[in-house]
């Protein structure tokens, strides 16, 4: 089932890569692959949709626990099919689109904090001349 979901998401990514509107977007292939990984990580039941429980668990993992009502509002912001869940196309539209949603901001922030790795080992030696 997971392989099937991955193949389905790859097909959707391919549509974006071939779409004239998105072709000029910077690092589009890499970004789509990251979105696919994020989506699959949070789609707990591998249904192809982020339902209210998937989003609730995702928000809790990110340290941003929300009420059911808040989550329903977040989903409604990006759910174009009015299904009460976020499908992968909605997810990609949200992440690539210009419109800013609460969910997008949280996911972007979470991705940036993952990228900021702390340096390993001893700190470099400093002297008085290197201080600001």
TrEMBL record:
<dbReference type="GO" id="GO:0005884">
    <property type="term" value="C:actin filament"/>
</dbReference>
<feature type="domain" description="EF-hand">
    <location>
        <begin position="30"/>
        <end position="65"/>
    </location>
</feature>
<keyword id="KW-0677">Repeat</keyword>
<dbReference type="GO" id="GO:0032587">
    <property type="term" value="C:ruffle membrane"/>
</dbReference>
<dbReference type="GO" id="GO:0097178">
    <property type="term" value="P:ruffle assembly"/>
</dbReference>
<dbReference type="InterPro" id="IPR011992">
    <property type="entry name" value="EF-hand-dom_pair"/>
</dbReference>
<dbReference type="GO" id="GO:0051015">
    <property type="term" value="F:actin filament binding"/>
</dbReference>
<protein>
    <recommendedName>
        <fullName>EF-hand domain-containing protein</fullName>
    </recommendedName>
</protein>
<dbReference type="InterPro" id="IPR018247">
    <property type="entry name" value="EF_Hand_1_Ca_BS"/>
</dbReference>
<keyword id="KW-0479">Metal-binding</keyword>
<keyword id="KW-0106">Calcium</keyword>
<dbReference type="InterPro" id="IPR002048">
    <property type="entry name" value="EF_hand_dom"/>
</dbReference>
<dbReference type="InterPro" id="IPR049025">
    <property type="entry name" value="AIF-1_EF_pair"/>
</dbReference>
<dbReference type="GO" id="GO:0051017">
    <property type="term" value="P:actin filament bundle assembly"/>
</dbReference>
<dbReference type="Pfam" id="PF21008">
    <property type="entry name" value="AIF-1"/>
</dbReference>
<feature type="domain" description="EF-hand">
    <location>
        <begin position="66"/>
        <end position="101"/>
    </location>
</feature>
<dbReference type="GO" id="GO:0005509">
    <property type="term" value="F:calcium ion binding"/>
</dbReference>
<dbReference type="InterPro" id="IPR042433">
    <property type="entry name" value="AIF1/AIF1L"/>
</dbReference>
<feature type="region of interest" description="Disordered">
    <location>
        <begin position="113"/>
        <end position="132"/>
    </location>
</feature>
